[in-house]
Inverse folding.
């Protein structure tokens, strides 16, 4: 009877798995951002700097004039009150900024709102390219050298300081030319209002001198600024032509030599502090903006990153703004006597405070904030957008390569 019973089932049956179904490989996490090539920081920073400079060019003209003592003297001769005290005075400066933009447009034409845009672009594009390139790659190098490949605030400080020094040394001549061009018009008006041998204070009737008829604007708004980069000034009869980038550069070199292009370099190096604070705060604010509920980075937070850039720029500007005023004074054109009034960083700081008071160190702050915050938002949005685009393309290529490897297996 036992021989007729079926054999017992094995205790450990062997289950065969079809060989044509490969075991799925673990999927690459999207939260880990790929590292873009070093040159991407160079290109992305240049594009971001160009966009920010074009958008905020009129506010840059206002900021430079408010910081200059030439504008202060002309406003005092006309009986205009520029400095108001307290928070109301700070808010009123925003109204003054709009009035100055209106007056520049009415009395000098629309081209005056973009005066110096050529040198600004010629300076902003390489400056931002150098700054973003050195910082973007420097923080990775410093992290690998000193912290085992991990970034922290100290790494960001070191990279930002290195980028600031490199940028200031490379682009200071371009900013000197730009500042000189923007102040030439104010210098001519001051000379016409108070010729040599004439006392500065005159009657009330002379304060309200009629403004000249503005010249007819070019057909293209940016034609003058871009043409000035490549074309020398043409010999014209009658009134002296508007200064161009070429004529200003030649004039500085002829009167002051190579050292004239590095006026204000000490203040620019002092401005490295602003960039260092801005980059460090931006990295922290960006980390908070991209963090999800579980603390991991999430997609779709680009607008928060842009706000982080504006907030970081605001804090850094409030802390370090006085150096902007000192730097503008050091870069002013030489007076007719040829003897510069402002010679060094410390001497300029002491002289400005002694003659005009400490509040003048924050002159033009409202216009400066109106310019640098939109500039920072635009610049960093474009920069992060280019990096994100490149990273997505790299991630897509990595996914395709992983898929090909699976198919081969």
């Amino acid at each position: 009877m036992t021989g007729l019973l079926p054999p017992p089932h094995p205790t450990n049956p062997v289950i065969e798995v079809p060989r044509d179904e490969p075991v799925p490989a673990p999927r690459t996490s999207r939260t880990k951002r790929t590292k873009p090539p070093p040159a991407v920081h160079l290109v992305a920073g240049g594009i971001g700097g160009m966009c920010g400079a074009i958008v905020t060019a009129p506010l840059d003209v206002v900021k430079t004039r408010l910081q200059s003592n030439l504008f202060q003297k002309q406003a005092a001769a006309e009986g205009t009150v520029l400095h108001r005290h307290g928070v109301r005075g700070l808010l009123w400066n925003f109204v003054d900024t709009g009035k100055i933009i209106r007056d520049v447009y009415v009395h000098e034409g629309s081209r005056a709102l973009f005066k110096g845009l050529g040198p600004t672009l010629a300076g902003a594009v390489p400056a931002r390219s150098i700054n973003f390139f050195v910082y973007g790659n420097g923080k990775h190098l410093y992290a690998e050298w000193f912290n085992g490949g991990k970034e922290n605030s100290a790494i960001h400080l070191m990279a930002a300081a290195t980028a600031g020094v490199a940028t200031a040394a490379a682009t200071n001549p371009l900013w000197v030319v730009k500042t000189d061009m923007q102040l030439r018009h104010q210098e001519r008006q001051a000379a016409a209002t108070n010729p040599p041998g004439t006392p500065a204070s005159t009657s009330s009737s002379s304060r309200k001198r009629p403004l000249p008829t503005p010249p007819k604007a070019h057909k293209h708004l940016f034609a003058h600024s871009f043409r000035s980069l490549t074309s020398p000034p043409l010999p014209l009869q009658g009134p002296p032509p508007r200064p161009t980038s070429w004529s200003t550069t030649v004039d500085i070199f002829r009167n002051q030599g190579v050292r004239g292009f590095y006026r204000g370099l000490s203040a620019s190096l002092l401005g490295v502090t602003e960039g260092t604070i801005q980059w460090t705060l931006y990295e922290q604010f960006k980390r908070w903006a991209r963090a999800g509920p579980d603390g991991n980075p999430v997609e779709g937070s680009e607008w928060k990153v842009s706000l982080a850039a504006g907030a970081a720029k605001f804090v850094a500007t409030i802390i370090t703004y006085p150096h902007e005023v000192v730097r503008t004074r050091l870069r002013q054109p030489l007076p007719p006597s040829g003897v510069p009034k402002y010679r060094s960083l410390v001497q300029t700081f002491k002289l400005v405070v002694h003659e005009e008071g400490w509040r003048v160190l924050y002159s033009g702050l409202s216009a400066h904030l109106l310019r640098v915050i939109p500039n920072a938002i635009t610049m960093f949005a474009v920069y992060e957008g280019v990096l994100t685009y490149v990273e997505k393309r790299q991630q897509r290529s990595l996914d395709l390569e992983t898929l090909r490897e699976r198919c081969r297996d």
Remarks:
- Residues 365-408 form the longest helix (44 residues).
